[in-house]
Specification:
This protein is of the alpha/beta class. The chain contains ten helices and eleven strands. β4, α3 and β5 form a beta-alpha-beta unit. It is globular and about 60 Å long. It starts with 13 loop residues before the first strand and ends with a strand.
Amino acid sequence: MENVGCNLCKSENLEYLYQIPDEKFNPSEVFSVVECKDCGLGFVNPRPSPLEMSRYYPPEFYQTLSGSEPKDLERLKSQAEYISKYISKSNDKRLLDVGCANGAFLKLMKSNGYNVHGVDPYSPIQDSMDMRIYKTDLPRLPICEPYFDAITAWAVLEHVHDPKAYFEKVGQILNKDGIFVFFVPNFRSLAVKRLYSEDVPRHLYFFTPENIFRYADEAGLKVELIDYKNKYFIYNPNRWLLYFVHKVLGTKFMWPVNISYSQFIEAGGMKRNLSSLIKFFLFHPISFLDSLLAPMVGEIERYTKKYAAVIYVVRKR
């Protein structure tokens, strides 16, 4: 484990926010989330070192990223649309996907006529004639001059140990007028900052729009679009009602904070039907209403620019 200061402004002026376990793979390990009081960047501190991170990405993690489900295919097509709006389809247009995982997005973009490359230290796919795969972190990519017309990072920058180095590398290897498109959690949102919604410790950083503008500017990049209303990265504020109940009562909102419908029926050996749903409402009315109304609260956050899932389009100056 290592202790770190703010990656963006180097400040040591940090505020503790909450603790949360690695619920997916190592539930006995607990991690703290802090906020830089000078620039507002959120991050895990202390955190696993880069050498320790591989055990937090077991093979099961990648099994959920195949991109073969219908909803996954729709999401991938939506991601491709962001590129096609800015870069014309052509075999000489080079695209780099950061955190390429199983290569689902690369395969789609290859079929759309792009010259595709991927970088991911934990990716299970191999280098081939169809796609160049670099098994390393982006800052160590063996390319040091403008080369790519488009770079993407779908839910990646929150995973890395040094976001600043990633922005700097993008500024170095992106062609003039090239675009950098990425998705990150929005630290302005209630879900990311207060509701224990982050996949810690795989998620190490949480960004505000102000953070992104500063990272981009210092790397020679300019933010062109912030999309709070994307349709395919769903991030509803579950536990929002419980949070406000605790606020009203003056009690501490701590992990674990509620029981989901799935947990309720599994614990009782029940099936998903109307009877079990009624029982869930009777035994856990706040959790029931919380889940029922979370999509509506999420829509409100979209229009107030506080939605938890944000897509940025950034251009090389």
